[in-house]
Amino acid sequence: MHTLVAATVARTDDDVLLVEEGKEAVRGTWNLPGGRVEAGEDPRETAAREFTEEVGVDVELTGLVGVYLGRDAFVDGPFLSVTYLGQVSEEPRAVATDSVAAARWIDRDRLDELALRSPYVSRAIHDADERTFPTTVVRSIPE
Fold this sequence. Notes:
By secondary structure, the protein is an alpha+beta fold. Helix content is 17%, strand content 36%.
C-alpha cells in the first residue's frame, strides 16, 4: 500500500525552499516541505498545513506540479505525493523540531551538492519549472 503525502515547491528565480530532515532515519537530508495526508484530509490542506508547521510561514498554493510515485525507506515502502507549487511572502522562520532541523532557501544550481531525501525532490523542482496545472485538477467530490 502507498503512503499518501502532499508537498510544496516554493521558489524564486534562483532559489527553492527546502527543509533539512531532523528525524534520525533521514537526518541531514533535504526535502520539500510536506507530510502525510491525514484521514479525510484534502491534499491541498495537507500541503498548506505541513508547510506552515515545517517552515513557520503560510503558503499560497498556486498550482499542481504533479503526482509522483516513489520509494522511501522511512515510510516503509512506496509513497504517492501530490505536489503543489506555492508562494510565500515572508522569510522562513522554522524552529528546529524532532522532524525538521532547518528550512532554507537553496540556490537551485547547488541542488546536486546536497543529500536529497529522494530523487523525487529534484524531479518535482524541475517539473515546477517546466509546467504546472490548476490546483482544481485534484477535486473533492461531495458525498
